Automatic annotation (TrEMBL):
Location of the Exonuclease domain: 7-184
Family named by the database record: Belongs to the oligoribonuclease family.
Keywords: Coiled coil, Exonuclease, Hydrolase, Nuclease
Keyword Coiled coil: yes
Coiled coil: 182-221
GO molecular function: 3'-5'-RNA exonuclease activity; nucleic acid binding
SUPFAM superfamilies in UniProt: Ribonuclease H-like
One annotated Gene Ontology cellular component of this protein: mitochondrion
Protein name per Swiss-Prot or TrEMBL: Oligoribonuclease
């Protein structure tokens, strides 16, 4: 499937910590775009996954302050959604927009970290449906810092709420910024080549039609 047609599944997870072997996903949000970053569904899908207050009390200082301050901790404790239900809901949403496995890339900011958590059961059914490659906006950002510093300096500031929906929307906007700032010329070339190909196709069609007309006229004159 061509790049612009290949869908991107944008996922952001909030966790109780950084270690995928010992910490838990507590919030997930997902949006799907086409390869040109157009949303297939503006509403998206998201859920807060239940953990007990006792489990939340074991978070490190940063997570305790951040998730407590944003209200996420209270929402997690009050949620009734299990990890299994979250995984089923997420996969169903993705399949609604991307029914075929191995087609869509997982996308986001530092999304390799989210993927490390999602590869654990029960969420691994989600990563199994996606392509093995990812589109990491953070990697584009690091490349821009080194090879296009003027572009990197003007990237829009993020709110930094560490709420999954906000983070995903900011990642998509950041990707759009880099697309225009780093790849605009390439996009223009693609559009020009597309127009040339369309012209050549029309020209060939008209030429074929004219050849047939000329042959018919010649045959008529002979008769």
């Amino acid at each position: 499937m061509a790049g612009k047609e290949s869908p991107l599944v944008w996922i952001d997870c909030e966790m109780t910590g950084l270690n995928p072997d010992s910490e838990e996903i507590i919030e997930i949000f997902c949006l799907v775009t086409d390869g040109d970053l157009n949303l297939k569904d503006e509403e998206g899908w998201g859920t807060v996954v239940h953990q007990t207050q006792e489990r939340m009390d074991k978070m490190d200082e940063w997570c305790t302050k951040q998730h407590g301050g944003s209200g996420l901790t209270a929402r997690v404790v009050g949620s009734t959604t299990t990890p299994e239900e979250a995984a089923d809901g997420l996969l169903a949403y993705i399949k609604k927009h991307v029914p075929h496995a191995g087609v869509a890339l997982l996308a986001g900011s530092s999304v390799h970290h989210d993927r490390a958590f999602l590869r654990r059961a029960p969420y691994n059914r989600v990563t199994d449906h996606l392509h093995y490659r990812i589109l990491d906006v953070s990697s584009i950002k690091e490349a821009a810092k080194r090879w296009a510093p003027k572009v990197a300096k003007k990237v829009p500031n993020k709110k930094g709420t560490h709420l999954a929906r906000d983070d995903i929307l900011e990642s998509i906007e950041e990707a759009k910024y880099y697309r225009e700032g780093l790849f605009a010329k390439a996009l223009q070339v693609d559009e020009l080549e597309k127009k040339i190909a369309e012209y050549e196709k029309r020209f060939a069609k008209e030429s074929k039609k004219n050849t047939k007309k000329a042959a018919a006229a010649a045959e008529k004159n002979e008769n």
